[in-house]
Design brief:
Distance between the termini: 29 Å
Radius of gyration: 19 Å
Order of helices and strands: HHHHHHHHHHHHHHH
Helix content: over 70%
Number of strands: 0
CATH architecture: Up-down Bundle
Strand content: under 5%
Length: 377
């Protein structure tokens, strides 16, 4: 298995996320956009995940050339983003975000399918590869925070161009790895999706990412309003992802001991606690740090358990579309609805109310997993 070549792609892909999530809202704020406009623009990043992974997932399943798709999508994302420095108006920025995020969001699900083909039966080793994505996130979130403090929010554009180039270059290092061709008859994918356990799973992952709306769209702006410096904000983001890295190191042990459904349920409950701590205690540094440590649950254990369940639910010719559906319905649809509604709630009723609603949404997801626990195993 080409461990370091696979890891390099994860490093750069999530380095882009480490620039976008903490600092894109600050960049948009520096251009004079209000919370509702920022939430609307941030929702584009998630909304394109609803369409893009499924379009490219269908192509990947039918053509079998997954790495060719990854390379093409990565290159087109880089080329589209080159127009961003000249854009200042809402419509211009929205159009460019639609274009580059459509291609950027297409690459990861196909790469995940390639990764699992390399892993074979050793699926529990996935977290050892994925942790390098978390390392990439930490590197950029700290470095870009420092640079924004020194040179202003405009440096975010340069940082994103750099990591998008890194994504494309690292994609050139990985060869395709075909999956095992199943000789068993497989039902149509719509029949698979109609099963109650899979419907419950997708509802839960949708709600988890929806609950992240106020965090991904406004966390940095929120902390800035309470007097935290950009460097401090970057450190707080990195604490969360460092906790995620540490969890990924030991995740295979948890997966051996507990069911993926139980881990998913616990992750949702801890996410609900996290949003309440952020919403009501932003001026208590110890609680803020603790809430960031809970990122190990709200993203780390949640994603590892979910990706494991997707791998079990979708086999053979459905593999690529299964990964794409997970990405589009959770990070895509859930993230877009969360970012858009959080912008509205934030502007109308304030941060505490937005985070309270986020907590309620996560608890609803936990209830769904609990209710269907026996059929989501």
């Amino acid at each position: 298995m080409p461990y370091w070549r696979l890891s390099a792609f994860y490093f750069f892909y999530f380095a882009a996320l480490g620039t976008l999530m903490p600092y894109w809202g600050l960049y948009l704020q520096s251009l004079g956009f209000d919370p509702f406009a920022i939430g609307s623009l941030m929702s584009i990043l998630m909304a394109t995940k609803i369409v893009a992974p499924n379009v490219w997932g269908w192509l990947g399943d039918h053509l079998g050339q997954r790495m060719l798709i990854v390379r093409l999508a990565s290159l087109l994302a880089l080329l589209a983003f080159l127009a961003m420095p000249a854009a200042t108006g809402f419509a211009e920025i929205a159009l460019i975000m639609v274009l580059y995020s459509f291609f950027w969001n297409a690459s990861l699900p196909q790469f995940e399918a390639v990764t699992f083909n390399y892993l074979g039966k050793a699926v529990e080793r996935y977290s050892r590869l994925r942790l390098w994505g978390s390392v990439g996130f930490i590197v950029t979130v700290v470095l870009v925070g420092y640079l924004v403090d020194r040179h202003g929010a405009g440096v975010v554009l340069t940082a994103l161009l750099t990591v998008l180039a890194g994504i494309f270059l690292s994609s050139l290092l990985v060869r395709d790895k075909p999956g095992i061709i199943s000789t068993e008859a497989q039902p149509p994918i719509l029949a698979v999706l109609k099963t109650p356990r899979i419907m419950a799973f997708f509802a839960a992952v949708f709600l988890m990412q929806m609950s992240h709306g106020p965090y991904y769209a406004f966390y940095s702006i929120y902390l800035q309003d309470f007097g935290y410096s950009k460097s401090s904000i970057g450190i707080l983001w990195s604490i969360g992802v460092l906790a995620e890295v540490l969890l990924f190191v030991f995740m295979h042990r948890l997966m051996h001991r507990y069911s993926a459904a139980l881990i998913l349920q616990a992750s949702l409950v801890l996410a609900a606690l996290r949003w309440l701590l952020i919403g009501y205690f932003p001026d208590v540094l110890a609680l803020l740090v603790f809430s960031q440590l809970l990122h190990a649950a709200s993203f780390g254990s949640f994603h590892a358990a979910a990706i494991h369940m997707v791998h079990g639910y979708f086999r053979g010719r459905h593999q690529g579309r299964g990964q794409a559906l997970y990405s589009s319905l959770s990070f895509g649809a859930g993230g877009a609805v969360g970012a858009f509604t959080s912008g509205f709630l934030w502007e109308q009723w304030g941060a505490a109310f937005a985070y309270t609603m986020a907590s309620a949404v996560a608890l609803l997801g936990a209830w769904i997993v609990w209710r269907f626990n026996r059929i989501t195993e």
